[in-house]
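User: I'm writing a short report section on ligand binding and want a predicted complex to refer to. Could you take this sequence and N-(5'-phosphopyridoxyl)-D-alanine and write out the structure as tokens? A short remark afterwards would be nice.
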Amino acid sequence: MKLYENLLTQSGFIHKDDLHYPFDERGLQFGDGVYEVIRIYQGNYYLLTEHVERLIRSAKAIKLTLPYSEDQLYKQLNELLIKNKVTSDAKVYLQVTRGSAPRDHVFPGVSANFYAYVQDLPRPTTRLQEGVGVITQEDVRWHNCYIKSLNLLPNVLAKQEAKENGCFEAILHRDQTVTECSSSNAYIVKDGKIFTHPETNNILHGCVRSRVKKLAKQNGILLEETPFTLEQLNDADEVFLSSSTAEVMPIVAINQSLVNNGKPGKITRLLQTAYEQDARIKKTIF
Ligand code: PDD
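Assistant: Sure. The structure tokens for the complex follow:
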């Protein structure tokens, strides 16, 4: 996948080959930092404000001072697309860490390291049309999942387990309550109503999740932010997930058992169409 050449760092734009991190970078040694993944359709950001606001919240939650003010962030992130002449479907990956300093758990008092790059990312059209399979797994993460932290080991292990079972995602649960997926938010539909875990510390407050809430409302579909159990998951009429890279993705099998006879459901389809319109995606797939 094409990686664009111009990289935004804490000290402005550089060529991607000129980024060199010292061995004592705190992101590498402690995972001491936060990140964002921002979607771009045909060269335009989607939900940029939501991502920038969440980045600021995540940084504040870990007492990290960003190298750019909010205004500067918008300016620089827009410049990133202009400098790279991006016109395709892509993503920006952005991360900020607590800088580089001799290894010590306490904060080093140095300034943050920041980088943001653009990479092409075609839409996952086949999966969006056909739906995906998932497994279920105990959620073994910490209790501050609202922070988009670089510490992703439990997420990585859960996603790998899904892959080894021929699945796209792992739906996570604390005891029997579904929280979210390893890198996306989870929803069920029962009797025409959508249920998803409320915005507590135990889930990432997804940018697409907040847009799904709005799109459901605009389309007269009830969405309740109420936790649901594994039993309710297995008894659902429809199941789907959402994220900046997966969009609104139908789930058609859970632990090998079919959902809705293995077909994406009606409400999921309606939200997928609403999402495409909202993101001003020209070439729609439905
Ligand atoms: N993941 N939950 C988790 C644990 C996530 O990592 C993500 C995003 C989401 C969805 O958030 P949003 O709608 O803002 O993309 C929910 C990104 C895409 C990633 O880590 O690659």
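A remark for your report: The chain is about 30% helix and 30% strand. The longest helix spans residues 48-61.
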